[in-house]
Write a structure and sequence with these properties.
The protein is an alpha/beta fold and about 325 residues long. It has helices at about 30-40, 60-70, 75-80, 105-120, 140-150, 165-175, 200-205, 225-230, 235, 240-245, 250-265, 270-280, 295-305, 310-320, 325-330; strands at about 5, 10-15, 15-20, 45-50, 80-85, 125-130, 155-160, 180-190, 210-215, 285-290. β7 (about 155-160), α6 (about 165-175) and β8 (about 180-190) form a beta-alpha-beta unit.
Amino acid sequence: MEYTQLGRTGLKVSRLVLGTMNFGPQTDEAGSHAIMDAALDAGINFFDTANVYGWGDDKGRTEEIIGTWLAKGGGRREKVVIATKVFGNMGPDGADWPNHDRLSAVNIRRAVEGSLKRLQTDHIDLYQFHHVDRATPWDEIWQAIDVLVQQGKIVYAGSSNHAGWHIAQANEAARRRGSLGLVSEQCLYNLAERRAEMEVIPAAESYGLGVIPWSPLHGGLLGGVIRKEREGGSARAASGRSADALANTKVREQVQAYENLLDKHGLQPGEVALAWLLTRPGVTGPIVGPRTAEQLTSALRAVELELSAELLGQLDEIFPGPGPSPEAFAW
């Protein structure tokens, strides 16, 4: 496993991030524990979750599964960097309730305590804002975060799904307070969805944030989806974001060209999609969300995969980026 520093911090994290969203809804506790053990054995030390994962009536279940794994001991907590998120409603008895969501100081304080309890730990390494809260001023958010840092309950703060100007606004507010500010941004970014290159990634680089791409295969679109359709796995291969994208004729043609190109090189589409992200400026590591240990093994191969300049150029031809703003939309 390769490691890099998270943004401008001194924290060293693996270049693959273990996403846990499937733990609970798709993978039971025993299977989830097996995946985490395998990830740790492979050198992955960066685990990402969110307080709402588990979804529906089981919100918080994913953090609970991670917590029971950490409680097994064996140096698990000392070896991993735990990242979780706050924003979604975590009201009592699973009901939406005022002041149990978003980024008010009241909810941040309550949400941290809930996550710590479910995770069975005394601190969270990276506490991420799952979405921008347009109703709460940054001074209030940073006041709450500064208190939690002083209490030792969190170490760093990061953002997720924030625009470039949100990152700038957040870190300028933190600078005025003498606070560290955001150290990472978790955003939708992959070969098929490159709009983050216009402003989000440049803003993250400018302010020293590590970029953590989520949905690196775009919901399976970049994982050999057309090949799987031909092999009779269409129900699993094309669903959600992947199915929506394939309904677009141009996207389907791009994906077919992508799979044809990689067939010529004897490469696996999913592994190449991850390896491509590892070549991108500012990227700390993509989030991989395996449902099985076999899927984790496939993702691990991406770290060792070296893409030639020629292949990178061909991938750009198939999935061209938008280019930087304002040129991308102004000229």
